[in-house]
Write a structure and sequence with these properties.
Elements (H helix, E strand, L loop, with lengths): L1 H11 L21 H22 L1 H4 L2 H15 L3 E2 H7 L4 H13 L3 E5 L7 E5 L1 H14 L3
Antiparallel strand pairs: 1-3, 2-3
Helix pairs in contact: 1-7, 2-4, 5-6
Amino acid sequence: MTHALAVMTDQHWGDYPDAAEPADLSPGAPPFCPKARAHMVRNLIRHRRRREQLFGAEVFADPVWDILLDLYSSHHEGKNVAVTSLCIAAAVPPTTALRWIKVMTEKGWLVRARDPADGRRVYVGLGADALVRLDLYFAGLQGF
């Protein structure tokens, strides 16, 4: 699933004519490294959880962003993410996470696929458009 999403993403770069590829955003920037990007995003997730511990999760709850971050990092780690794991990553009640997963899937931000080995399990990944947008977002943060 991860490889198929990567191929779809490569095909969609043309949809953003004003956007440079992440490695091209700043002169002399190091080449894009999926493992480094995944590590950066996982650190961001840890910082978000720490902020929630200090100030309270109810103030900073943002399940859509948490879902996107988890899927983006997992994509660059080459890992599939089951719906149940994604609900946990959203840091909200499962019904809330499922509702947002449905909304994001309808928008095309997420794609769902059944596990061929276990039809009860459903994997979720980033849609091509969401992946490109997240690449652009995090490429802009690299020099931050």
